[in-house]
Amino acid sequence: MSDSAGRRLRQLGDVAVSQLRHVGEKRTEALASLGIENVFDLLTVYPRRYIDRTKRVDLSDLTVGEEAAVFGEVKKVSSRRTKQGKVMVEVSVADDGGSIKIVFFNQAWRERQLPVGVQALFFAKVGEYKGQRQMTNPVVDVIVGPSGDERDLSRVGRVVAIYPASGKAGLTSWEIGGFIEESLRRAGPLLDPVPSSVRDELELVDRTQSYWGIHLPTDLADVAPARRRLVFDEFLRLQLLLALRRRRLEQSATAIRHPIDPEDLDVEPGAALLPSSTLVRRFLAGHHFALTNAQRRVLADIAADMASPLPMHRLLQGDVGSGKTVVALTTLLAAIDGGRQGALMAPTEVLAEQHLASLRKDLEGLSVHDERVLGGERPLSIQLLSGRVRARDRQVILDGLADASVDIVVGTHALLTDDVRFKALGAIVIDEQHRFGVEQRATLRDKGKQHSEERADPDLLVMTATPIPRTAAMVVFGDLDRSVLDEMPVGRVPIITSWAREQREVNECWQKVRDEVAKGRRAYVICPLVEGSERVEATSAVEERTRLALGELRGLSVGLLHGQMKGPEKEEVMAQFRAGDLNVLVATVVIEVGVDVAEASVIVIEDAWRFGLAQLHQLRGRVGRGDAQSFCYLLGAPPNDEGAVRLQALVDSNDGFALAEVDLDLRGEGTLLGARQRGRSDLRLANLRRDEDLLIAAQSVASALVQVDGLGLEPELVDELRLFVDDDEADYLFKS
Ligand code: ADP
Ligand code: MG
User: Fold this and answer.
1) Tens digits of per-residue pLDDT, 341-350?
2) Residues forming beta bridges with residue 425, ordered by sequence position
3) Ligand 1 atom nearest to CA at 625
4) Residues at CB less than 6 angstroms from ligand 1
């Protein structure tokens, strides 16, 4: 049972900040500009750091050359122009033990921020100027402003929390701390919605303690347990929402049971076929290769999902080149074997078109039963629906989907607009779909149902080649089951990646392109990312192609592919490159995802540091798809360490999962989580790597709680979740 006494977070969410004692109109506005409107918002503004006043560095014993945080009062401030014409603000800061000079260049506003009497924390390396210790352009946290009421020293405990003060909004850390303290005192004890059995087991402090411990610690040792509890709560809420969503989907599901014969998944290339053999069997037997163990395992997962009374909702993760396409096609064919249709969605038109081409090739010769045609058999029909299909053709395809004379449709998101109706949509596969959030997927699923005359939930397989570390996947894809293709097809030769720093190395790179072309292979050259518009980027790609064709790659046939080209033009170029009429393809990142030309064995990435690590790995994955040794060259000098770390990581590893970990380290999880949810993001303190154990604990607590009665027994938790979902979703998730 939870403690039923105390105030709920949602009640705090109902109290406007303007009801606090020192918050008038101006501060209400200032807080609003930081997204803080109510007391709950305020309590989730967490301290950036703490100063332990008992251990403060004395200004008299600062060591030159070391970083230090000094706390003191401004005694003098002045500004002048240097000989070079820069504005220089000079501030003298003192504590009981000594003083230090602080200078700011080109920050004239500091004079207003730091009038005499302000107490602030300054953080920088301690330097020396004319024998005096000095800090230059430090980070500043104003703790106590110049006005009277903020200087009530009774509020200065042993430990002072430093908040992300905002110079722009004109709020000091001290003021924010004051509002928070008032809020906590007036709120009194907080209701703890987490059952005490759970708290005991995970050794979590209670909620009241957690908010006091993080905001008003009496000792620094209070902070860590407080943070732990708050992080757990963040994860718990998120996992509860995911578990509830899942439960809802399952309850409202009218799934299609697709019968799949496990023996069909086990066929070897060239296995015998009977007239009655399924499409799945025909397809798999028709390959020149056997499935990898990983592919078999994943297909077994999928077959079990498809045969079950619940709709499949599965994420397939597999590094670039691990063979996801075969899995996707088998899934679609299983739906067709069951008398239904399949849809394959790709993120870009280029990829959709390529999928169409390779699907048609892969599925050539397969036929389906159709009572309406003479002989009861007709060829499998695969069609493309994209923004570029002409209206007349489009209508023919739409009719075909509506009467099921089209079996598989390939396209972009445009596939699921309102006028696209299926007779019986059985399975949807989404390729390379890592950029979309939970809601978008839910919408997609709902559409699947509404758009099908049959009104059943299609099975859904979401594929991504951007490996996501496990913890991040639990957050971003927490409502999906997961399968991983963790094995490459045999015979793959790891790509050799070089970072060409010196001119000699760059020359070798172009020489390698010529050598490989001489062997009948092909090369990609990826143009730098250009800030601004696609048009500007296209222009620079055009120029680069000309430059290379006249220079380093003179004599080779060099094609061009960029985002501003028209569809048929792009197709034409891809076809020429595939056929070998073009030796080299100079392209912008339009080729990033999924382009598959087995003869391509070199990829040169210009200004490689401009791309993200995942993107670079994707780009590199355009080569090494056949059995020849392939090469990747990274060009350009990174202007910062981070860029260098990325390029070196790529040189060191071909393993997408390892690179994803590096990436997460470099970028933090913010970017990954960005697409997670619209509206309010609840992960403020949590750090996926550091708090992995709490995430796992929260997931298992959430699924146990939701399993019992869909949270029916935990009204307080439901109440709290309402803070994070809009009304529509709340109705959907919480109705009993
Ligand atoms: P991705 O996972 O990047 O989408 P693909 O499905 O495009 O990878 O597969 C990459 C290449 O590997 C393709 O040329 C495909 O035909 C081939 N392939 C897939 N599975 C196997 C296998 N089991 N054995 C050998 N080659 C395979
Ligand atoms: Mg692919």
Assistant:
1) 999 998 877 7
2) 341
3) 11
4) 289, 291-292, 295, 318, 320-326, 465, 489, 596, 598, 625
